[in-house]
Every structure is written in C-alpha cells, then in structure tokens.
C-alpha cells in the first residue's frame, strides 16, 4: 500500500471566496436604499390603506342589503310571491 499525500489546497483561479460572500450577504447596517423604499410602507401605501381601498363600495352595499333584508322580513311576511297553488 502506498502512503497517501495530503492534498494541497488548490488556489482559486477566479479569486472568488464563497465564505466571504456568505458573510457579506446579510442585512447591511447602513442600507443606502432604505430612504428610497420607505414611502412604500407609509402614508397612503400602508397595508391597511391598500386593503381598505380595494373594495370601495362594499361597506355601503352591505348596509343597504341589510336594510333590504330587514324590510323584507318585517313587512312582507304574509305575501308568498312565486308560489301558486292550483
């Protein structure tokens, strides 16, 4: 059996170090784009304001439909439209 030689670590031809890349890919302490991105999450662009504006007439329509159902239940109990007895 031959004794094995310890393989010397080969030099990287490109100079790219994966360990340095992983260490630097975290969130930076001073983000230069933070100021430019802040408008997306404040004022009229908050998550709640965007959701609120998605269905503009839903609140009024829900109240009107509730009033209609209440009227129908209170004032049209005796009438049976559409059911004819022969």
UniProtKB/TrEMBL annotation:
Record has Ubl conjugation as a keyword: no
A biological process term (GO) from this entry: electron transport chain
UniProt membrane topology term: Single-pass membrane protein
Subcellular location: Mitochondrion inner membrane
UniProt key word Signal: no
GO cellular component terms, semicolon-separated: mitochondrial inner membrane
Alphabetically ordered keywords of this record: Electron transport, Membrane, Mitochondrion, Mitochondrion inner membrane, Respiratory chain, Transmembrane, Transmembrane helix, Transport, Ubiquinone
Transmembrane segments: 53-71
Biological role: Accessory subunit of the mitochondrial membrane respiratory chain NADH dehydrogenase (Complex I), that is believed not to be involved in catalysis. Complex I functions in the transfer of electrons from NADH to the respiratory chain. The immediate electron acceptor for the enzyme is believed to be ubiquinone.
Similarity comment text for this entry: Belongs to the complex I NDUFB3 subunit family.
Protein's UniProt name: NADH-ubiquinone oxidoreductase b12
